[in-house]
Amino acid sequence: MSITGSRVIHTADYEHLRAIINWKQAGQELGHIEGEPLNIGYVCVDRNVDLGRGEKLALVHEGHGGEIRQFTYRDVMLLTNGWAHFLRGLGVRPLDRVCLFLDRHPELYIGMMSVLKTGAIAEPLFSAFGEEALFARASDSGAMAIITERHHLGKVRKIRDRLPSLQVVIVIDHEEEGRPLREGEVAFRMMDHRRDTFPIARTSPESPSLLHYTSGTTGAPKGAMHVHGSVLAQYLTSKTVLDLQEDDIYWCTADPGWVTGTSYGIIGPWSVGVTQVVVNAGFTSDRWYETIEKHRVTVWYTAPTAIRMLMKDGLDPVRRHDLSSLRHMCSVGEPLNPEAVRWGREAFGLDFHDTFWQTETGAIMVTNLPGMPVKPGSMGRPFPALEAAIVDEKTGVPITEPGKIGLIAIRPPWPSMMRTYWNNSATYYKKFLNGWYICGDRASLDKEGYFWFSGRDDDVINTAGHLVGPFEIESALLEHPAVAESAAIGKPDPMNMEVVKAFVALRPGFTPSEDLELDIMNFVRKRLSPLAMPQEIEFVDRVPKTRSGKILRRVLKAKERGEAIGDTSTMDDD
Ligand code: WT7
Question: Which CATH architecture has domain 462-561?
Answer without folding.
Answer: 2-Layer Sandwich (3.30)
